[in-house]
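Deliverable D4.2, example record:
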Amino acid sequence: MSLLFLASMGVVAILLGIASQLPRSSAGYAAILALGIIAGAVVVSFIRGDEGGPILLVGGVALVWLHRWAGRDRRRLAMARFARDRGLEFQARNREALSEDFRLFGRGDGGRVRNVLQGEWDGVPVRAMDYDYFVTRTMWVFYPLKDWRRFSVAVLDLGASVPLVIAERNGAAGLASDYMGFHDVQLNSDEFNRRFHVTADDREFAYQFFDLGMLRWLLNQPDLLETEVQGRRALVALARLEPDQMGRLFDVAVGFRSHIPALVRRKYHVADPVVP
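Output generated by the structure prediction step:
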């Protein structure tokens, strides 16, 4: 093997040794540096026909995994810091969060919940979390590849039991793209019908739920991908937020609950909105 290969492996081994002594949140930076060295060595090795090239390539894949592993921990620490600063409970994992019977949680071939935040926000109990699900695709005839979809999700209690109604943003990845242009429920707003797809067990309830105030509020939430209401629970889903932006998810969840029409509140005994 060439001197280039041996030198590269030596430097990478040293960097990995350093990374093993660092906190997980910092190990990713050492992985980036080692990855840069190994990427250059791979290119040169293949150009020169060095047999060490494939081995270095495998090492590069391992370093990519190390960087992603460290990145997840940085997010966990940042989410825990957000929770501590705002008086919320934090759990890195919570399997019970997926027991909710929301349609979003049943999509794809598998899902996971991480970084669960729970507590009161403007007087309303809310549970927020990172939710990912994957769709398995096949590459090169036999190789399975997981295509992940990532969301920031909040769940809250309505204080009453109401029929199922779901509003999904048209064209959002993994959501309503399969039926764009087709509407289970056509509401009295052309703009809303262009942007959202509504599914409901009871159409009359959907017309009552999506009154003018709710429609206007939803249209003013550009990052909102989906809302679900069924039974006593409601869900809102946004594209994945950075940890320091999670307050936006809580605000949307509380805002959605507060815009439930008065007619629905009276008919189904939904709890009145909390005034901050």
